[in-house]
Design goal:
alpha/beta; four-stranded mixed beta sheet; 11 helices; about 60% helix; elongated
């Protein structure tokens, strides 16, 4: 049973390798899929077949999705080669050459977007990718023959909004991370210039925004460290996390020991402390304070 005929030129010959991978995918599931190739005046015709006994709506749906994913990669390759540079330089003209180069690399990863979803940005990228794949799937369902060059040339305009929205998101995240990195560098520079006002601070995390601050002798020093911020503390102008960062920067301790990091719901504050104070930060989970924290949680 003929599933699809794919027409392409010599510059798209890697499609055979991808179809071979698809064939292996089906064969491993005891579904016989094969293909034959012919060439006429440098135009390749790839016919993809399946066993008539295996042909059903489920097989067709899986095949169409798999082929759509293959065509999606070809669309991305074409977009990356011919469109992405002009879009970035025209839309984000203020970016430097090295920034454009980095954003192009980040954009390619976002456009391909394979593997497990690990953050909100990947959810955004995957949704846009799925939107395009659905459009490609619809096209495959309507036609038993796909000409790769013609498909890319005439269908690209249907995908361009989704593709460019992915680039926009990449640039947005890049600029946020760049500003954050510059902010961290400024804080680190300020801390390095300061003379330490305290030798050691123990940060004990008992739960969400519930910190205990002690010096190296076990004395509670939270009120002392937060004294300059007391007005903001009670007015709710800044969060306890912001106050903690401010207190650490102001006092520039030589050693910061963090206990119970697994209880911290805001992982960003731990990243910020580590980024600003570097080797001064240590994480502990075996001392008596850590044992007390664990026993309180269990009880």
């Amino acid at each position: 049973m003929l599933l699809l005929t794919v027409v392409y030129d010599k510059f798209k010959e890697d499609i055979v390798e991808k179809v071979s991978e698809m064939k292996q995918y089906f064969n491993e599931r005891n579904i016989t899929v094969g293909f034959s190739e012919s060439i006429d005046n440098n135009t390749h015709f790839l016919k993809i077949f399946c066993d008539e006994n295996a042909y059903d709506s489920k097989l067709t749906k899986i095949f169409n999705f798999y082929m759509a994913d293959i065509l999606y990669d070809l669309v991305i390759d074409e977009f990356y080669k011919k469109e992405i540079h002009n879009f970035i330089t025209n839309t984000y003209f203020f970016l430097k050459y090295d920034e454009i180069k980095e954003i192009k690399n980040l954009s390619l990863k976002a456009l391909k977007n394979k593997g497990p979803i690990t953050n909100e940005n990947m959810v955004f990228y995957r949704n846009r990718k799925n939107s395009i794949i659905q459009k490609i799937t619809d096209c495959i369902e309507e036609n038993k023959e796909i000409n790769i060059n013609g498909f890319i040339r005439f269908r690209m305009k249907e995908f361009i909004n989704d593709l460019e929205s992915i680039i926009d998101k990449v640039v947005e995240n890049y600029m946020v991370e760049k500003e954050y990195s510059e902010f961290i560098k400024l804080l680190k520079y300020f801390v390095d210039l300061q003379e330490s006002k305290i030798e050691k601070i123990n940060i004990i995390i008992e739960g969400n925004e519930n910190y205990i601050l002690q010096d190296g002798f076990g004395n509670d020093i939270m009120d002392i460290l937060f004294s300059d911020l007391s007005d903001d503390k009670f007015s709710g102008a800044i969060s306890i996390d912001d106050m903690l960062i401010s207190a650490l920067i102001t006092n520039a301790p030589k050693n910061i020991i963090i206990h119970g990091k697994e209880n911290c719901s805001n992982k960003e504050i731990l990243d910020t402390i580590t980024s600003v104070f570097g080797d001064r930060v240590k994480f502990c989970d075996k001392c008596n304070m850590c044992k007390n924290i664990k026993s309180k949680i269990k009880s």
